[in-house]
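Researcher: I've got a protein sequence and the SMILES for calcium ion. Could you write out the 3D structure of the bound complex as structure tokens? I'd like something to compare against our soaking experiments later this week.
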Amino acid sequence: MSGTIDHIGFALLLVSSIACSAKSDNGAESVGPAPQAPTVPIEIPIYSYQIVNAYPHDPEAFTQGLVFIDSVLYEGTGPINGRSGPGSSIRKVDLTTGEVLQLHLVEAEIFGEGITVFLNRLIQLTWKSGTGFTYNLESFEPLSTFNYATEGWGLTCDGQRLIMSDGTATLYFRDPFTFEETRRVTVTAAGRDIRKLNELEWVEGEVYANIWGTHTIARIDPATGRVVGWIDGTGMLSDEDRDGRRVDVFNGIAYDTQTKRLFVTGKWWPKLYEIKLVPPSP
Ligand SMILES: [Ca+2]
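Model: Sure. Here is the predicted complex with calcium ion in place.
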């Protein structure tokens, strides 16, 4: 979606057991026994990262979707100014140089959002138009459209199903041929809904999701919707790369299944990073 960085701290996402006193219906403090605590504490590991490689990234790209498949980086962008008007696109990008190798601009009134690839098609969501587009993966020739009732934010594919976010805490699973919804799941951490799920990536059986407005990626169990890990991307874009630049939120995750490389970037970021996750110290 559009907008500039707001400073929702990562701490807001660090959901842990919350101590609260029980209240009766009339608001009086209950003096009865405390609710049963879980027998196993809920601990969600927080991964940090190590930068393996830093590559140039088009600082005009308002990144909404990122996919790496068969050695090609595909990127979907929103309007150049991040709000409305022209510039939404799908593009093939040379990973190492950042050069845009192929570009398809969508109509100026369309706000491009997440993208994914299924078979020989690239699929693109739009923010508020309720319409998605499919393209020939090689030529970017438009093939068809489909409709949905929610906003469109992030999109990925597990090989059999499309998985979509709409800015809420819900992930929608859709048939990749008919685009019909087949199931949905609410994403939670320690029992609390995790909203503003944005760009998505299917990584080794989990869904990775940028949380809009934060430096955080959630690692989600697609079966239960539970967050099984956080990735704290704080500090990735250096002060030097931010200096004097217009940059927006951390957004864009791509995974190369062949080499197991993980790529991340952000809207208008001048860099795209290959990162390695660093588990928390025991
Ligand atoms: Ca992605």
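Model: The first helix runs from residue 239 to 242. The pocket of calcium ion is lined by residues 65-67, 156, 199-201, 253-254 (CB under 6 Å).
Researcher: Great, I'll pass this along to the crystallography team.
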